Amino acid sequence: MNTNPKKKLICILSFSCALALSGCITMDGMTKNLQALTSPAMTKDTPSQICQMAKDNQVRASDSYANSGFSATGKVTSINDRALPPRYSVQIEVSNKITVAASTDSLNSIRDLTIGNPVKVVGTIASISNTGDKYLGCMIHLRNSSFQN
């Protein structure tokens, strides 16, 4: 069996198009299949585990988790509109000294958020920083984030 990811994707796209043309699959179904193929694998590690690795070696942690899918639940602490893409930034306090900085270009995804309210965030890890400061702690930076109240 061919394990080349590019060839595998082309094969699946070709097969999906053939099914769509024959009426066996809807375009919505085909879109969901493509999203599943291109979504990053979700890490099973907790924010505490990720931040412990960052405390031990920030470079190793960022390298190990970069481009991994991640989700967490916490309290919204800030919502910001920036001039440069990604346009919006939301900070979420996950636990004492662990914060998620989630970015998105989607106004609709942040429109219903309120500072102080709980939210679940899902995104792709861009980097991890650990200030070493006993007050600031660890920050997990996400891109392509989405939010669920």
Description of the molecule:
The protein has helices at 5-22, 27-38, 47-56, 58-65, 107-110, and strands at residues 69-81, 88-95, 98-104, 118-130, 138-148. With 149 residues, the protein is of the alpha+beta class. Helix 1 packs antiparallel against helix 2 (27-38) and helix 3 packs across helix 4. The longest helix is centred in the first third of the chain and has 18 residues, at 5-22. The mean pLDDT is 83.
Record the strand order, biggest sheet: 1-2-3-5-4
Number of domains: 2
How many individual helices?
A: 5
**Which class of the largest domain in CATH terms?**
Mainly Beta
Structural class: alpha+beta
Rg, Cα atoms, Å:
18 Å
Stretches with pLDDT under 50, minimum 5 residues = none
The largest sheet is:
5 strands, mixed, barrel
What secondary-structure arrangement, pairings included, does this model have?
Blueprint: H1 5-22, H2 27-38, H3 47-56, H4 58-65, E1 69-81, E2 88-95, E3 98-104, H5 107-110, E4 118-130, E5 138-148
Parallel strand pairs: 3-5
Antiparallel strand pairs: 1-2, 1-4, 2-3, 4-5
Helix pairs in contact: 1-2, 3-4
Features:
2 domains, single chain, OB fold (Dihydrolipoamide Acetyltransferase, E2P), 149 residues, 5 strands, 5-stranded mixed β-barrel, alpha+beta
